[in-house]
Amino acid sequence: MRRPTRFLRRHPLLVLTALGITFAAWICWDALSPPEPEAVPEVTLRTRLAPIAIVDDVVFPVTTPEGTAHALPRLKTGMSRTEVEGLVGVPTPGNISPATVADGRVVYRTQYETDLAPPATVRPIQRSLPRHPSPSSALVTLEFDATKPGHPLVGIYYPDPLF
After folding, report:
1. Residues 58, 85 contacting (CB under 8 angstroms)
2. Maximum distance among all alpha carbons in the chain?
3. Does the pTM exceed 0.70?
4. Which of 6, 62, 80, 142 could form a disulfide with 150 if both were Cys (CB 3.0 to 4.6 A apart)?
């Protein structure tokens, strides 16, 4: 037992060098050996529905007060927003209100300028000036449910006829 300790005391650099060489050999061996294959996780395949094709050919009608007035009787609650916009056109960005909570559900409203007056029997002569809302035009508000798929129409609000 005295012999090994005496050797360590007499030759500490030799022992330290042997330990360093052993450590370096271990690092080289680990770096040069091929990596072990990792366990491949089990993949479960699920069936997916086919994606809905987006058609660029769909053209929504141009929103005009007269066109909106003619399409209003065809609107029914429960119609999706796409169906409604197919009838009355896409509202201008200034006529879309932010979503709010009403009656316990999240809704948003869109407004359309409509011409609710009866059609004139004689067409008046108009100059080519920019079109301003006529006195007979009014804003009709459509309310959509933002929590359900397709954002169904839940309400149609006409202006008060007294004002």
Report:
1. no
2. 127
3. no
4. 80
- Paired with 106 in beta bridges are 101
| Predicted local confidence at residue 57, as pLDDT | 56
- The rounded distance, in Å, linking the Cα atoms of 72 and 87 is 8
- Residue 130 has a pLDDT of 47
| Residue 83 tokens, joined | 């169906």
**Dihedral sign, CA of 7, 12, 13, 17?**
positive
| Other C-beta atoms lying within 10 Å of the C-beta of residue 28 | 10
Structure token pair of residue 123: 């067409």
Dihedral angle sign, alpha carbons of residues 127, 129, 130, 131: negative
Residues of the chain with pLDDT under 50: 128-130, 162-163
Can you point out the beta strands (E) in the chain? 100-102, 105-115, 137-145, 153-157
